[in-house]
User: What shape does this take?
Amino acid sequence: MIGDTSMKLLFICSQNKRRSLTAEKLFDGYKCYQARSAGTESNSRIKVTEGLLGWADIIFCMEKKHIRRIKEKYPEVLADKKVICLNIDDEYEYMDEELCAVLESSVDEYLNEYVQT
Assistant: This one.
């Protein structure tokens, strides 16, 4: 995070097909961020792994149930991680204009706050 190192963002939703995938596309390469995404369900496009969680500087979950699922499965990995719930319901399509706007405002707001502290 300091100097020219990029901040690594991981976005998590249920199936990694709409919300988290949209967030990855929006934020990967934006400013100094690297972004990846994953899902918590067995039929996810890319499933959450210990390695992905370990890679991330900040983990953004779309709903509280996603935080609960990863905390139950990977408590040790998450012990010193910043995990944020964005409270974005599964009601959008991939790259939906409204979803993009919600993600940009909520994630940017958090990142601006996080970088300043």
